[in-house]
Predict the structure.
Amino acid sequence: MSDSDIPSSTLYKDNVDWKDITPIYPSKEEEVAVKIAVTEDFTDAFAYFRAILIKNEKSDRVMALLEDCIRLNPANYTVWQYRRVCLTELGWDLKKEMRYLSDIIQESPKNYQVWHHRRFIVETIGESAVNDELHFCSEVIRDENKNYHAWQHRQWVVRTFKVPLEKELTFALHMLLLDNRNNSAYNYRYFLMTLYDKTEDASQLDIEINLAKKFIENIPNNESAWNYLAGLLITNGVTSNSDVVSFVEDLYETTPEEKRSPFLLAFIADMMLENIENQKSAEESAGRAKKLYKDLQSIDPVRVNYYRHQSLLAQTMLIKAQTKVTAK
Amino acid sequence: MSFAGLLDFARKDVDLPQNSPNELLKDLHANFINQYEKNKNSYHYIMAEHLRVSGIYWCVNAMDLSKQLERMSTEEIVNYVLGCRNTDGGYGPAPGHDSHLLHTLCAVQTLIIFNSIEKADADTISEYVKGLQQEDGSFCGDLSGEVDTRFTLCSLATCHLLGRLSTLNIDSAVRFLMRCYNTDGGFGTRPGSESHSGQIYCCVGALAIAGRLDEIDRDRTAEWLAFRQCDSGGLNGRPEKLPDVCYSWWVLASLAILGRLNFIDSDAMKKFIYACQDDETGGFADRPGDCADPFHTVFGIAALSLFGDDTLESVDPIFCMTKRCLGDKQVEMYY
């Protein structure tokens, strides 16, 4: 673009269409209290925004002003709030608003306000917005696979509009195949199970456990997969599923010592703690737990204090178990 | 061995540059905070109008923790904060802006730091907060209706600091928090949302204020938090994310509230935080080599204070304020 294409000033104060508005600049006191350097177009646009708020004007030109304010500061919730009021009152084209929002979100995907605004629009449009919305979430997630807002927004869409379970499980699986360590995707599968009342459903639990095992086999040093596996067993404990116990023990046996992941060792140690509590070969289990925590101190030294604490816990639990037996 | 197996131990982390600072540059930070207004552009976003009261709290608190509060102009700041009060009883980020719980808490914190809380009206503030509590116990941040466990902490902390905790329905607030408690021991923003260090800090802090920490399995939560420490010593917010100074605060404060601060390797942690200092301008960045800002500066200093740095004031892990200024407003905790 050559210089001649740019208007001499893009400021509102120089724009004839805004001549009827008296801008409200920050007061001297405000400036003194917290001195802040902002650009001229920032000061200009927000001076007109303040004036509009007081005048309570809702119009097409205000919508354009709000877009400028959002561009300058997308985290300002007052601007967004006012935009919602205007949208409703002006009967604004909501599809157009969605396209506008998609652009903004692509630019600043971490902003709370934008997502909240999007939710408001989807709610207003209703059912017919669902497919586009899922597609949009997928796109943002493909760009940044742990984007907290996008996953959370997708949960909201699925919950609000009862999107079928299978379809969403497939989406989460797809994301996990692209990145076995994507904690957001594991969390999403668990969310789906909770939503569709499947956390105690034996066949669904088996599917999930097998999935976790597969991903652990593929990359044993994967915190999320191990946490997912432990989470699936939370009701009855990590030793409650014999299939999992033998899977973990086999993995330990078949992996050369120097290649064993800290998560593998910590998981077995947790199994041992559970054995002590259940008075299942308590002494032997405590001995093994302490040995594992000792190994963990050398292979994962940054958590040495944590493993020491756990080792002491194993000892404490053992003494508790033993005194319980004696008391019988 | 599979291809993925080759990447077996490739956790996400950063390298600390060799010439990184290796001690606390306390005086530089005080200058950084004190002079930020002269340093244009780089961090004006943080002090922009829409979050100015929060920005004031970060700066004032950083100075209080550094024992340099006298360098801030008390009267001007107190008057500005008071000017952010709205007729609904809450505080906005700047005069004329809508009230929001985030800024209401920051306003209350700033007034307490300057020993001026009597200038605020505790009754109207707590009524404002109460008005944002929903039937399921959650809190909206403002009238736009966004729910987040962050706002539960804001509400409970604000009312506690004003001696008005009983204004809120604490039982239902706790019930909502527990719906956000995940099987990995962490908490998310809403029921079903992924565990995140920042949200854990909010939920654990709120439970501590409510006197209901026994609702959770402390060891499970603390274990998840311990695994946030990367080999560089820094702490991340979620598995497989890069470490960041502000997570140092959220993770450490949560562990301190749970009585498990020792799960962290403090020497490695300090080394990481020191390396995030800008040794020319002062201030802390999110990671070594990035641009410093007041947000990461206050949380970097607060994190170091949790480890008992003598040159700093002692910080309270729930409220992120000096224990000195909190006095008897500190929450008693039993482990």
